[in-house]
Protein 1
Amino acid sequence: MACAAWLSGCVSTGAGRSSHLSTEALLEKAQGWQAVAIRGQSERIQADAWLQCATLAHDAMGTDKAATETAAGLLATQCSRAFFDLVAQGGPIGVAKGQSLLGGVAIRVEFRGMPDSLGSSVYLEPADQVSMDPLGGVRHHRAGFGVPLVAFALPCSDRPICRHYPPEGVFRPTTMWLEGPSGTDAHKDPPVLVLQNPELQPEHVTGANHYALAEDVSAPFAQLLERTRLKRLAWWGMIGGAEVGKRAGLFLLDDYDPHKTPIIMIHGVAGSPLIWSRLSNAIMGDPELHRRYQIWHIVYQSNAPLLVERYRVQHYIDEAWRVLDPDGHAPARQGVVLIGHSMGGVIARLLCAQSTPEVWSAAFLQPMDSLHANANDLATLKNVFQFQPYPGVDEIIFMAAPQRGSPAADGLLGRLVGLLAWRHIEEMAGLMRIVAANPKAIQPAIRAMIQTGHITSITSLQPDEPVSLADEKLMPAAGVRYDTIAGVLPGVKPPGDGYVPLSSALLPGSTTTLVVRSDHKVPDRPGAIADVLKILHEHGASHAMASNAMP
């Protein structure tokens, strides 16, 4: 009979109905509703009972007695999770801010500090049901109050920043719990399903008690990786497939924060941001680093010559800054870290270097001003061959980067890519027009490569390619620290990771150098990941000291 009476609507009176009871009595009543839920004969009865259990236990969390505080927090979490599992029926559920109906029960959904990127409606899934296989089985999570969930939303399309969210969707950590309504009309209002951002608001306060929220930072990233098509598209991008080109750009793993230092990760030939999965997870799973840094992934079509790829990546970074910080004053613009794998490491070095006349002379016999060409082609040519160190960068981490080329580029793969890729390099069309109009202005070897189309990202990595020989001498500007991590496999001749020789990967002047036992996938190796985390901690500490020293 008590259950039947309660189903008529008692639960909606939550906090107001129970305000006269002691916290111990509230906890006892919550435990009683837990028993009702366990033996409930229908899903509706169970849903209502779990809801009553969760809201009463939440009311009891304001106690001044430590034993009750702990027990109430645990029970509120357990009953909130049981309610969610019941209404979700093993799959994700969709909710929107405001009034909703879940499991036949009226609920008010409240977003607290949730990221703007999610909008006003999301799909929810328990974080512990998300496989960690894409992250090598490593899950970074924290126990505490509430139920860790993954909140998923399709990317927006109504603002410029939407272009910098992954096209697969936006995935963010959230913590959920149920509580009773508050205010003068609490007896009339439905209970509240709270979704709180555990990164922005890591605590829940009730009474005088502070409860640290449970959080899972790995599950949202793993969900994104499960949905991405980048692994297949990366190879097509190397030989000119258009899909990678369509989605090329700079993408945010977190919502933009003007006070967090960006770590910009640049993949290599036939690569994608998937190479950064384990490293990105490790950075986000380190609370100190995640408070200080935000991770940005570059996606680019890796078919073009090296200097063209450098120009592309700079364009993507410039484009992102125009959207994220149009005034150019954000603290995030200073102390930027670049991490580059394979050819991405060479691009990172060139992004921080000053071009020289020798680079131009390696390709051309005449000054740029004397060339006959249309304005757009000349502008592209100037951007490719004349550049300055990218402002704000003061740290580069090279990972398996062929700074002096790779013998593998001369092999069968290099020749195959040279045959397939060149017709799909947009920037090369302009260079070919310039060559046709100025045949005597181009170095013979370069002219022959351009005319036949055999000049690509792979040919740029050939140890004897003329322009690459010149740009090998371009080093990061003064004030830019750089660290090198390289791989080596037993029995490989010359010593290296099978693709990049150590003689090419080890760069003089590096602040630190680490050689790990690894194939070319150096960013996947635990030793390499640990070294990057150490470098970032040192980088962050030095910036903190510099900031504190400022008047």
Protein 2
Amino acid sequence: MEQNIKRIDASFSVTGQIEQSDLHSLAALGFASVICNRPDHEGGPEQPGHASIQQAAHALGLSFAYLPVPSTGATPEQAQQLRHLLNELPTPVLAYCRTGNRSSKLYEAATQAPRKARLYDVVVVGGGSAGISVSASLLKRNAALRIAVIEPNTEHYYQPAWTLVGGGAFDVKNTVRPTASVMPKGVVWIKASLCAFAPQRKVVLLSDGTELGYQQLIVCPGLQLAWETIEGLEETLGKNGVTSNYRHDLAPYTWELVRTLGRGKALFTQPGMPIKCAGAPQKALYLSCDHWRKRGVLDSIAVEFNLAGAVLFGVPAFVPPLMKYVKAYNAHLAFQSNLVKVDGPGKTAWFDVTDADGSVTRVEKTFDLLHVVPPQQAPDVIRRSELADKAGWFETDPATLQHPRYPDIFALGDVCNTPNAKTAAATRKQVVVVAENLLALRKGTVLPKRYDGYGSCPLTVENGKVILAEFGYGGKLLPTFGLDPTVARTSAWWLKATFLPWFYWQGMLKGREWFTDCKPD
């Protein structure tokens, strides 16, 4: 086998068609990955299909990719696909086709083709709350910085208000603006998706084949809502009484269901952590119950909150005041009850319920209203990169927000593996830490800022009152104002419903940094 392998460079070799029996030899030669460039059935029934080779490769611990190239030759798109694979697969790589010739030419095209490379001082991955705010803050400190923001979406959302929309207390139209209107002046907006990281070369690869080079990289693409992990959910969202405040187009449907329900059963769910705004699932419950109570129909509605976890809220100090509202609304709490399946037309949901011994039972429940919070994870491009931790979240020093293995890379927002609440308030304080530390790194000085884990969750326990939960790492209470944070207040409602939306658009996204000092121990 070895004599038929042609080495192109230290990380890439090619050969002709291989058999399953050859894989042991390839593993012994030190190859870590195999790429099949030969289309299945090209050579007739005697040609081994890629699936059988892939199965055998995986059994030996080898990575495998199928990138078929016709005998007429590779396309530019296939060369781009190989570039992406070479940034993801462990090396050395062996590629094969019928003779090895196509694999060799494909590699040549992938590595020597002209690239639309552009170099920036700072590249920011993501144009959401974190990306826009940190770009504005950097430019406020140094207007000469060349900053590129990678963001494919043309609309920008103020997501914290969606729970208010679902409770009939906010207009959904006021939660969205064109991305172009919030992009800081002076940055270059790259309207594309990120495909891969190449941190050794200090570049990122985009969906259109472009490579962006950077001196420093900021990663803040947010997280990914995994609707598809709940069987039957996607096809019934927005109808059959199934809704979620975690989507811009569904929050108004939540309010429609709440204001029209007069009797029946209302189920609210919360998946396993981490999720963005851990209080949002119960905010939906509280605002709904408050409306039903004021209409005089609450006694005719059976309300149940199904939580995948074992506690109502992760910071113990806030549990007693929240429980007062749970009891006042006569809501039943079902702990360690995780939504796994939905039949919208049949108005039925299934939950996996874990008992004290760890045994799991599938429980069927009917509903008239089902408010779903989906499981959440880091975006695919993060989870498959070498920059992620074992759980798939972006690996980040919890104090400096710097990557522990690539000091020129910082991260903030929901994608981080830091143990703080994933909220816009957390991002607001992380922005200053990243901006100051990145600029210190550029100057070669000590990183001056430390993030204390601050997060804020304004718990809307009724229309007109909020428990302003502010806390940091380890559940330490970090109130901004000199008031008991466990008390529901009208002033906190004004802060949540009026001031914070205004400040988001006019302050945070423009680099204004009020009340952003962190207080690490």
Protein 3
Amino acid sequence: MSEKVSEKDRASSIDEKHQFQGEPDGSSIVAGSEGVTEHELATLRHVADRLPYTAWLVVVVEFAERWTYYGTTNIYNNYINFRLPTGSINGSVPAINRGGNTVAGALGQGQQKAFAIRTFNSFWVYVTPWVGGIIADTLWGRYKTIMVFSIVCLLGHVILVASSTPAALENSNTALGLLVLSIVVMGLGAGAIKANVSPMIAEQYRGKLRKETLKSGEVVIKSPAVTIQSMYLWFYAAINLGSCGAISASFLARDHGYWVAYLVPTCIFVMVPIVLLIGRKNYVVTPPRGSILLETFRVIGFALGPRWSINPLKTVRSIKSPDFWDPAKPSYYGEGKVPAKMTWDDEFVGEVGRTINACSVFLFFPVFWLCYSQIDGNLGTVAAGMTLKGTPNDLIQNLNPISIIIMIPIFDRVIYPFLRSRKINFSPIKRIYAGFLVAGLAMVYASVLESYQNKLSPCRGGEFHNQPAACEVDGEHAATRLNVWIVSGPYILVGMSEIFASITSLEYAFTKAPKRMKSVVMAFAQFQTALSAALNFTLTAVNVETKFVWLFGAFAVSSWAVGTIFFFCFRRLDSREAELNAIGQGQREGFHGETADTTTGVHTNDGMQKV
């Protein structure tokens, strides 16, 4: 699940807090806390706080939105790829064939066109978060932006239902045109919502660092950082619980046709504006903070100006220098000498630097999302050539969200607390790296499975050489003797990789972004999926079943290689977690109005730190 605040484990807390102790004996009070001393912060166990009910309302919004998204997109592959089953007018499988290997279908456009349209959908829905992020940060705020674009998204769903009615399917070109239009409209709405809903949930929590005595008598630290980490784990669980709506979609398409399968998520989406209205008086709402993009580019321009040189090595060294941002600060020029175009203060320059730091971490994610994209359709095509025994081939991909739902409580309640108790610093950078490694392992599984499938398929030899695995032989839908559930491995492994990498990317986008730029940074993080889709689109020629073995294998190697490069580029950030989270939380834009970070008590000056 495409689509995901930092690990404040006890071990890293001890290391980081000692860097910033105000008193040698640790008796000083952590700034912004409710009487917690440095010594208590370093020695007591850190636990999550209770979440406000408004956070759970946002979870419900995300649950409904993701149900409708995956409840439609997860059946796109069959809808576009395969033709109408014999005797069907709506794409459903006739009752007499439902116990066999016949798959639902409608438009009959083939694997490559289905791949192209699905890839465009992925690209579009992860480009449009820029629109939602910019509008929220500069004009409307997050709440109004989500509300307005939920109506836009609902309109797109109505168009999708119209595209799949029996009347529309009489002309496949008409149906295809309406499908593309619905994808454009829904993608605009869903993308704008996506950029804002994940920052909005974390903003609902307003607690401070404090001590609390449990019923057992143990004194613990109620940590905002651990709370937000837990919050995002459960937020991601809601995403995947919602995506399980695709389970019903597969059966609805098989038994009742595609217009019914698309109508159900459309009705569920009506929950989104309703829930938003229910909590409108209680949400913690972040107001828009004015146009910042133009100023951001100007800050970068002022900083880069003096750094250029005909010697590329000198340019790189200058950009990496600790004083890189100084020429963009008004204080650099002295009183009366500040350039007229410099309409910001030193703190804003620090926020821009922090934003770029946060964004740089996400630049490696397109390769990760390439691996994830294979479970959207290509593995469904592989499953179509296996023994189904009445199981819709596009049902199997729901094992991905189901496995995530099962694993998240285990990670949140067992694995992560165990690591904290053993003082093992499983930091955000390490978790993301683990995600790349597991995603590569999933692709190895897929490649080996497809190789074996090719050897068994009647569509791979003789007169049927190089045919799709789901071809017809003597008028019957061909299938290998492999049971379709064997393909579940990659879906489960990709789910585990998402817990490590995708959820952590949501954490990182929230904690490392300045308050005025959280939606924009979140949009940039999600934009990596769009870049992945664009890269994937260039591979359309090799997205045919006869080349899946090499395609999956190449993605595995790429994920391992890029993940390793990522780790060596950013591993030094592990020791600066607390420092980086404190940057940009100054008096003007402070966290909960404090003058220092509520977890570490770190005071900063200009807020600039270079990676």
